[in-house]
Amino acid sequence: MLLSLPSELLDAVVRALASERDVQDLRSVALVCRALLPIVRQELFKVLHVCAVYQPYMRPYFEHVVELRISEPVNDPMDLSLLRSFYFVPFLTPTSFPKLTALHCTSLDKSFFRQFPRRFLDALVSISSVTALTLSHAWFRHPMQPKMLLSALPNLSSLSLADFEVILGVGAPAPNWPSPTTLIHPRLSRLSIQPSVWSNASTHLCEWLADGPAAESLAELVVTDERGLPCTGILRHFGPSVRSLALPLREQEDLQDCMAFYTGLRDLTVVLEAYSTAQGPWYLLAPFFVHGIAAERLERVTIDVRVRYPMALASAVDWATLDRVNEELDEDRFGALRRVVFVLQWRAELGWCPEWEERETVARNVEARLHYLADAGKLETRVQVVKEFPDAVATNKNAPGSHAHEVLPPSA
């Protein structure tokens, strides 16, 4: 009876399980019927930890891998030693990983980059299918190393950086490193950055990226931060080519000079902390729409309000600010605006779930305050719990995308 169902439906069921990141459920489905096994494998092995390449029994499944994670294994000295010796490099070939499109490097300290052998970069050059790179909690020994890594990916179009560091003074260029003038600047279309509290390495890398084709090719820029760090050092390197921009609104940070260059914006997301947590940025929201952006081409605005701890949901919003936003977004200069999304959200890990009636009350109040937009059919309101905020750069703890699973080799 199961086999009588359309294959599209079976695919949808497996993808739904994969979206919940429940590996055990996927394994159970694989045991139900032999016909389901190929479908499950496509999801089960989408994301693979690099230490799994050492296991011969894993190699038949490399053909399903879409994302490869390179991170230091926990409590496994043998795998850690193999990783730091770059033992995995011979397996990084387009033949072994025909579907590989993403590399995710996380929790790599300066010990990993002590050698940074040329053969590792040469292997990356050979895998031309890789278009996305994530560097999360990665500590380099020299400013040249991240540039060499990016230069080794010829078709890189998406880059995510989170707590990315360069530890100055602990390393020097090796004799076999290429000349800085020969490095290839990637033609990025998407850049996501969570600045580090310890250094301005992200800003310096943005400056290098902007000296290349990314200055004209970058279409999406996401700046995310939960610690109140300024984002002007990143914004000032880009501008006219960006169509989609997401950024936190911060008190005591003047964005107007930087935003003057973002003349092609179609999609803007403004991230705010809950009003009861940080009141100052709320007072800047309406003036930001008036003076801070070029509105003539803007088609979509998202006001993303984030709740970090349990509270009365009504206290997360400055209602007077919404009255002013309602007036400003109804002005003629926002004539191209087609959609305004107001999102009030919190992470599931809080273990907190407000009553449905409270959520509905807040949603109705938002619609009442933004009534010009609601009456025009432009307003969308969400009060929701999420597994992770949409601009979060994944770490070891969080899988990189709701569809992905990290497969590790079993412990000895």
The topology string of helices and strands comes to HHHEEHEHEHEEEHHEHEHEHEHEHHEE
Rounded mean pLDDT score: 84
Q: How much strand content do the residues show?
A: 15-25%
Distinct helical segment count: 14
Count of individual beta strands: 14
Q: Write down the Rg.
A: 23 Å
Q: Strand count, sense and closure of the main sheet?
A: 14 strands, parallel
Low-pLDDT sequence parts? 395-412
Helix share, percent: 25-40%
Shape: globular
Distance between the termini: 40 Å
Strand-pairing-aware structural class: alpha/beta
Key attributes of the depicted protein:
412 residues; alpha/beta; 14 strands; 19% strand; disordered C terminus
How would you sum up this structure in a few lines?
With 412 residues, the protein is of the alpha/beta class.
Structural topology:
Blueprint: H1 7-19, H2 23-32, H3 37-44, E1 47-49, E2 67-71, H4 77-84, E3 102-108, H5 118-126, E4 132-140, H6 144-151, E5 158-162, E6 165-166, E7 190-194, H7 201-210, H8 214-217, E8 220-223, H9 232-235, E9 244-248, H10 256-259, E10 267-273, H11 280-292, E11 300-307, H12 319-328, E12 339-347, H13 356-369, H14 371-375, E13 379-386, E14 406-407
Parallel strand pairs: 1-2, 1-14, 2-3, 3-4, 4-5, 4-6, 5-7, 7-8, 8-9, 9-10, 10-11, 11-12, 12-13
